[in-house]
Amino acid sequence: MVKNEIYELLENHDAFARQIANANLANLSFNVYEYWENRERIQLIFAERNQFDSIQEAFSAIFKKEMFDQEEWETSDDPDPTDEEWLTALKNIWINEYFPSADPYEQVFIEIINDDFVSSFKRILFKVNAPKIMISGVNQFSSIRVKKGHLYDYIFGQTHSQYFLLQWAICT
Questions:
Q1: Is residue 61 within 8 Å of residue 54, measured between CB atoms?
Q2: What is the pLDDT of residues 98-150, one digit of tens each?
Q3: Helix pair 13-22, 2-11: axis angle to 10 deg
Q4: Beta-bridge mates of residue 158
Q5: How far apart are CA 167 and CA 147, in angstroms?
Q6: Which long-range contacts (CB under 8 A, 24 or more apart) does 48-53 make?
Q7: Which single residue of 42, 47, 82, 160 has CA 20 to 30 Å from 31?
């Protein structure tokens, strides 16, 4: 289910742009954890599931949070969701920038992550000093790999109470 819903969103840039634009970051709560050591970089963004009506809404909002953080934009500068210029920029520039279709080093594809990922994910949570309650809550979750590169992973998932976005990279 997670896989199909995210795939549909990434295939329909109009719908994805509207979902992103409608996500009001000022009204949402996120927990962001980062880890840098040598060349390894980890970023985790968590959001409580009860803030969203659908998995597509959650993915869009968490992606918007990531984009605003990466681009160093202020949440207070969030354009109006009906601003056609903003919707066009999301559809034609920003979605393609973050989810490129023709980049040989970073491929967008959707695949279900196997159960072996649970132990890796727990190690990552320890590295970023996530609260112990969060670590103990990830015994059962579903996740999908959205993007993969030679030295990069972009994983979206859900636990019983939260959605999360994990980015792992070796920076050169």
A1: no
A2: 887 655 444 455 566 666 666 666 666 666 666 665 555 555 566 656 656 55
A3: 100
A4: 142, 163
A5: 9
A6: 48/161, 48/162, 49/158, 49/160, 49/161, 49/162, 49/163, 50/161, 52/163
A7: 82
Confidence of residue 153 (pLDDT cuts 50, 70, 90): confident
In the chain, the amino acid numbered 163 is Y
Residue 28 to residue 91: CA distance in whole angstroms: 22
d(CA 153, CA 131): 23
Three-state secondary structure of 146-164: EEEECCEEEEEEECCCEEE
Distances, alpha carbon 1 to alpha carbons 4, 82, 115, 132, 139, in Å = 5, 29, 16, 28, 19
Model confidence band, residue 6 (pLDDT cutoffs 50, 70, 90): confident
Global confidence as pTM:
0.82
Cα(68)–Cα(73) distance, rounded to whole angstroms? 5
